[in-house]
């Protein structure tokens, strides 16, 4: 049975925004932690409106960029903290108050890297029919190839991985990364699947 501490960490991993940042930035574990589930490389699209396959949705997501990196919006709207514009990466890196920081895209915070690498396993769950996260590959740390918003690349081809800015390359080679996938929409997983695939990492 998972300990209360393990379950707390799992619950924390499902929360949005500052909680994950707080965990990575300030948690100094005395022993390897069992698990964390991350929200990946961010989003560039609206729920149920895939920009890469709809001209209207593509127009809408590009229009949203006009306000997504406004300081007041970044500080007050959690969804804006996850907005990642692959076309104007410089604006994203300079004005994203959460995601660019936590994913080490402005510089390397060694405490983030140290605490993530302290995990026994880093589990990433991709919901194959997800209509909320765009692109879905973000759930496995993939994202759009820089400069456009149609073609995605996997984690292993990203600068984050090749430069090992967050420790993911070292963790991958050590067998600490776990990529899980299941049919279903955003966070639509059964209790049976959860106990079969997640709880074993907490025991």
TrEMBL record:
<keyword id="KW-0732">Signal</keyword>
<dbReference type="GO" id="GO:0005764">
    <property type="term" value="C:lysosome"/>
</dbReference>
<dbReference type="GO" id="GO:0006898">
    <property type="term" value="P:receptor-mediated endocytosis"/>
</dbReference>
<comment type="similarity">
    <text>Belongs to the palmitoyl-protein thioesterase family.</text>
</comment>
<dbReference type="GO" id="GO:0008474">
    <property type="term" value="F:palmitoyl-(protein) hydrolase activity"/>
</dbReference>
<feature type="signal peptide">
    <location>
        <begin position="1"/>
        <end position="21"/>
    </location>
</feature>
<dbReference type="Pfam" id="PF02089">
    <property type="entry name" value="Palm_thioest"/>
</dbReference>
<dbReference type="InterPro" id="IPR029058">
    <property type="entry name" value="AB_hydrolase_fold"/>
</dbReference>
<dbReference type="GO" id="GO:0007399">
    <property type="term" value="P:nervous system development"/>
</dbReference>
<protein>
    <recommendedName>
        <fullName>palmitoyl-CoA hydrolase</fullName>
        <ecNumber>3.1.2.2</ecNumber>
    </recommendedName>
</protein>
<keyword id="KW-0378">Hydrolase</keyword>
């Amino acid at each position: 049975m998972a300990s209360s501490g393990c379950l707390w960490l799992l619950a924390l991993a499902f929360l949005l925004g500052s909680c994950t940042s707080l965990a990575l930035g300030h948690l100094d574990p005395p022993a390897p932690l069992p698990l964390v589930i991350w929200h990946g490389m961010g989003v560039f699209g609206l729920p149920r409106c895939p920009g890469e396959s709809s001209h209207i949705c593509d127009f809408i997501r590009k229009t949203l960029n006009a306000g997504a990196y406004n300081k007041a919006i970044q500080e007050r709207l959690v969804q804006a903290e996850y907005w990642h514009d692959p076309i104007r990466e410089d604006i994203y890196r300079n004005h994203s108050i959460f995601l660019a920081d936590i994913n080490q895209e402005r510089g390397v915070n060694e405490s983030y890297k140290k605490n993530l690498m302290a995990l026994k396993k880093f589990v990433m769950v991709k919901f194959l029919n997800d209509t909320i996260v765009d692109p879905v590959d973000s759930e496995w740390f993939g994202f759009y190839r820089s400069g456009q918003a149609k073609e995605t690349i996997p984690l292993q081809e990203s600068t984050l991985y090749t430069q090992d800015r967050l420790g993911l390359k070292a963790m991958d080679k050590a067998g600490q990364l776990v990529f899980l996938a299941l049919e279903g929409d955003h966070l639509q997983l059964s209790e049976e699947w959860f106990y079969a695939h997640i709880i074993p990492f907490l025991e």
